[in-house]
């Protein structure tokens, strides 16, 4: 029996693959783009299959041919690419997710884990979002995540698929290339660690919920491992920093480790116009804490920044930064 990771060549998929291989699991990575260098160190323990979530026979084949027991369905177009190509995003994130759920149903998959996003919230959230805050996203990406959460709940009720979901903040870590509103966090730390100047594209007081990649991977595995009887809320917020740190707070924290870090601010009007729709400052994750014992490893900004700088400096090649 194997574990399938869709989007398995992506930032989080690769991290998950390493953790699952370390636990002795047979792992299959399914992705539209193949980047074997990302799993070179575990190449003998993973099977890589190039395929497209939009093409239902390719999705059916990968599940049928590999005796897949559980699925981490990570394959998706992220927020900015979805904004640029909403039609492709619909096919990948909505139709592709339906394909995945159907394959799970038809071939007796037990568990399906689906990463959603704080982008599934949106208008009029107030400053605190809980697991019962109304989700009214303003983007097609956010709408596709709400659809995935609801479709999964349906498959759980109707077909007894053990569907579970968690909402990351903007995922940050070394080498993240996907542009997005939260990307000033990783780029500010990464550039400082590499001794390069960084022109920040948001104002000093801008803040966004973020999740350090190590905690995103850890939370995903913890949710996967939780006993079925504990899963009541089904779709969970997770959180590290409360409230989310501002750009200036991040800069000051970086300076504790790199006093001569060069950061300037030139807010991009397009990014800031987009950002002004967002009022959430605190992501309430008490249900994940109560139901499956979620606790972040990195709840202090300083600890995360120190770890991030260390990763950049000790493994630049691994993150494509050398
Ligand atoms: N990165 C974030 O800030 C963030 C935040 C919240 C939720 N998430 C979710 O986490 C998951 C993983 O994100 P990530 O950060 O690793 O992003 P990523 O872009 O690094 O990985 C996504 C992967 O999906 C693949 N993919 C895209 N279209 C596909 C298709 N049609 N068929 C097959 N594969 C396809 C891409 O090639 C890529 O490797 C996604 O579902 C994303 O929506 C990410």
Secondary-structure map with pairings?
Blueprint: E1 2-6, H1 11-22, E2 27-31, E3 46-50, H2 56-65, E4 68-73, H3 79-84, H4 86-106, E5 111-117, E6 128-129, H5 140-159, E7 162-168, E8 170-172, H6 184-193, E9 198-200, E10 210-212, H7 213-225, E11 235-237, H8 247-257, E12 263-265, H9 269-275, E13 282-283, H10 286-292, H11 301-314
Parallel strand pairs: 1-2, 1-4, 2-3, 4-5, 5-7, 6-13, 7-11, 8-10, 9-12
Helix pairs in contact: 1-7, 2-4, 4-5, 6-8, 6-11, 8-11
The structure holds nicotinamide-adenine-dinucleotide.
- Helix percentage: 40-55%
Largest sheet data: 7 strands, parallel
Envelope shape: globular
How big is the Rg?
Answer: 19 Å
Total number of distinct structural domains: 2
* Total DSSP E strands: 13
Low-confidence stretches: none
**CATH class membership of the largest domain:** Alpha Beta
Mean pLDDT: 95
Spatial gap, N to C terminus:
37 Å
Judged by helices, strands and strand pairing, the structural class is: alpha/beta
- Report the CATH architecture of the largest domain: 3-Layer(aba) Sandwich
How big a fraction of the residues is strand?
Answer: 15-25%
Task: Count helical runs.
Answer: 11
The strand line-up of the biggest sheet is: 3-2-1-4-5-7-11
What would you say this structure looks like, in words?
- The chain is an alpha/beta fold and 322 residues long.
- It has 2 domains: 2-171 and 210-237, NAD(P)-binding Rossmann-like Domain (Rossmann fold, 3-Layer(aba) Sandwich), CATH 3.40.50; 172-209 and 241-279 and 300-314, Alpha-Beta Complex (UDP-galactose 4-epimerase, domain 1).
- The chain is 41% helix and 17% strand.
- The protein contains 11 helices and 13 strands.
- A 7-stranded parallel β-sheet has the order 3-2-1-4-5-7-11, sandwiched between helices. Strands 6-13 form a two-stranded parallel ribbon.
- Strand 1 (2-6), helix 1 (11-22) and strand 2 (27-31) form a beta-alpha-beta unit.
- Helix 8 packs across helix 11 (301-314).
- The structure holds nicotinamide-adenine-dinucleotide.
- Nicotinamide-adenine-dinucleotide binds at residues 7, 9-13, 31-33, 52-54, 74-78, 92, 96, 115, 117, 168, 170-171, 178.
């Amino acid at each position: 029996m194997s574990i399938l990771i869709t989007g398995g060549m992506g930032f989080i998929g690769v991290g998950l693959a390493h953790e699952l291989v370390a636990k002795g699991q047979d792992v299959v990575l399914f992705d539209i783009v193949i980047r074997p260098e990302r799993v070179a160190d575990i190449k003998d323990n993973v099977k890589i299959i190039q395929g497209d979530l939009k093409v239902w026979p390719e999705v059916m084949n990968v599940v049928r041919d590999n005796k897949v027991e559980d699925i981490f369905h990570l394959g998706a177009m992220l927020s900015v690419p979805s904004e640029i190509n909403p039609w492709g995003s619909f096919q990948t994130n909505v139709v592709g997710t339906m394909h995945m759920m159907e394959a799970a149903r038809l071939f007796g998959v037990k568990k399906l884990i689906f990463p959603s996003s704080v982008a599934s919230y949106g208008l009029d959230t107030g400053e605190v979002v809980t697991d019962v805050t109304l989700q009214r996203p303003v983007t097609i990406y956010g709408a596709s995540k709400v659809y995935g959460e609801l479709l999964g709940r349906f498959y759980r009720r109707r077909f007894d698929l053990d569907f579970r979901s968690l909402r990351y903040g903007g995922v940050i870590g070394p080498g993240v290339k996907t542009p997005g509103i939260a990307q000033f966090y990783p780029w500010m730390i990464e550039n400082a660690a590499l001794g390069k100047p960084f022109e920040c594209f948001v104002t000093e007081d801008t803040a966004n919920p973020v999740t350090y990649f190590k905690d995103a991977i850890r939370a995903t595995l913890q949710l996967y491992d939780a006993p079925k009887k504990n899963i009541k809320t089904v779709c969970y917020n997770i959180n590290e920093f409360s409230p989310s740190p501002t750009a200036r707070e991040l800069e000051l924290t970086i300076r504790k480790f790199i006093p001569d870090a060069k950061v300037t601010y030139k807010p991009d009007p397009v990014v800031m116009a987009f950002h002004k729709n967002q009022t959430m400052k605190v992501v309430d994750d008490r249900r994940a804490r109560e139901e499956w014992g979620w606790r972040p490893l990195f709840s202090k900004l300083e600890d995360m920044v120190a770890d991030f700088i260390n990763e950049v400096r000790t493994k630049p090649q691994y993150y494509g930064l050398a």
